[in-house]
Amino acid sequence: MSSENQQRALRPRRSCLAVPGSNPRFLEKAQGLAADQVFLDLEDACAPLAKPEARHTIVKFLNEGDWSGKTRVVRVNDWTTEWTYRDVVTVVEGAGAELDCVMLPKVQDAAQIQALDMLLTQIEKTVGLEVGRIGIEAQIENAKGLVNVDEIAAASPRMETIVFGPADFMASINMKSLVVGEQPPGYPADAYHYILMRILMAARTHDLQAIDGPYLQIRDVEGYRKVAQRAAALGFDGKWVLHPGQVEASNEVFAPSQEDYDHAEMILDAYAYCTSEAGGKKGSAMLGDEMIDEASRKMALVVSGKGRAAGMKRTTSFTPEEA
């Protein structure tokens, strides 16, 4: 994998805030929120008659707004509609230099990702943007997309994330529930476990991030936190937020605790020391009462990477024990 893609994989995406592209007031407010990522939406959040004007509104806010510290994404309409190509052309020609990724919803196969890649490449060449810099986020929202998720994840070097879209997915498989993100009645286990793990395996196989979708009960922050904790426990990198009240919860859930972050950094320092000349070139060592080795280092890298991406600071330091 190229260094560019490795850098993409490290973008913080604990909280991915959805903002209607047709609402200037929300676009203005979103700039001041502590979300890691903001995606300006041309799809479901925009009525059909509002989409053409919303494209230009998004271009204006990308170019003139202050999105400091945020990953900037635009969700276009899916390829089965008549709007997709014009969404991409208008936004990327108008504000491509201020755009990090394009999110494609309702992805069903690799060809849809490849088509977006080709269109992005042509626009970048035409307007003089760096070819390949703009990433792609693929949203899995139906059974066909999940069945093809491996080929979707591998479809383009622009791929950065795979996103679970629960509402459309629930409809596509006839799930017996009207509450998006909640368990359907009558099933004693977690009805989303297979779906989430399938997305996660495809993402990790190709060094992509995995993002959980929205929780629509926007004023039930504890309900949001509970669903977010499930995805975080599996290894997901973040979750959509639809309301400012969900941002803090998502940032907290998808970041390591201070204790875990400090411990991970201590493991990395201790392992680097024990394998060095000064540390005796050992393959394993004791860190307090814990034995650490190469496997410990790999696990610690995951936690430290999430903590660093979240801007966490260490509160402890490593000091080698005297021989």
Query: Which range does the strand content fall in?
Result: 5-15%
**Average pLDDT rating:** 92
The helix tally amounts to 13
CA-CA gap between termini? 41 Å
Structural class: alpha/beta
**Total strands:** 10
Shape: globular
Q: State the order of secondary-structure elements, H for helix, E for strand.
A: HEHEHEHEHEHHEHHEHEHHEEH
List low-confidence stretches. Answer: 1-9
Describe this structure in words.
By secondary structure, this protein is an alpha/beta fold. The protein is 45% helix and 14% strand. The protein contains 13 helices and 10 strands. The chain has helices spanning 3-9, 24-30, 51-64, 84-95, 110-127, 143-147, 149-153, 166-172, 193-205, 221-234, 244-253, 258-274, 294-309, and strands at 15-20, 37-41, 71-75, 101-104, 135-140, 159-164, 209-212, 238-241, 285-287, 290-292. An 8-stranded parallel beta barrel has the order 1-2-3-4-5-6-7-8, surrounded by 6 helices. A two-stranded antiparallel ribbon has the order 9-10. Helix 10 (221-234) packs parallel to helix 11 (244-253) and helix 12 packs across helix 13. The protein is globular. It starts with a helix and ends in a 14-residue tail after the last helix. The model is unreliable at 1-9 (pLDDT under 50).
